Automatic annotation (TrEMBL):
Protein name: Uncharacterized protein
Species of the source: Halocatena pleomorpha
Region annotation Disordered: where it falls in the sequence: 47-69
Any Pfam family the entry gives: DUF5805
InterPro entries: DUF5805 (IPR043828)
Phylogenetic lineage: Archaea, Methanobacteriati, Methanobacteriota, Stenosarchaea group, Halobacteria
Length: 132
């Protein structure tokens, strides 16, 4: 029987180019491949549940931390050196890394030819038959 803290192995099938990219990314972050994949999955789950209906509290997919935005707001308030923060300060605190996340996501989508940037057209678009 597997205890909650016991580790188990899983197998994932992916193209070779993706495995090479993940190995390189893990090396850059000084992480094992297992740590890297586990971190990506957890980050993806957080991002997924922020943009859609979260699972029911009693389900096995529920995150133990609860509402991630609530957690982030409370963390910002607790870690502030002041007793009160205004709206702008709270907003900055909970969105501090959104630009980096957006840039990394767009880079990834461009690498996999799902999105393309056009300076001439002034923005990003989905890479499909409309843009070929």
């Amino acid at each position: 029987m597997v205890e909650d803290d016991d580790t188990v192995s899983i197998k994932v099938h992916m193209p070779q180019w993706q495995k090479k990219r993940w190995v390189a990314n893990a090396d850059q972050l000084d992480m094992s491949q297992s740590e890297f994949v586990r971190s990506m999955v957890q980050a993806g789950r957080r991002g997924f549940w922020e943009s859609s209906e979260p699972p029911e509290a009693g389900s096995s997919d529920a995150t133990p931390r609860g509402n991630d935005l609530e957690t982030r707001v409370l963390d910002v308030l607790r870690n502030s050196d002041r007793d009160y923060l205004d709206w702008e300060e709270l907003l900055a605190g909970v969105t501090d890394d959104i630009e980096e996340q957006l840039e990394a996501t767009l880079d990834s989508l461009q690498e996999t030819n799902q999105v393309k940037y056009s300076g001439r057209n002034g923005g990003y678009t989905i890479q499909d038959e409309r843009t070929n």
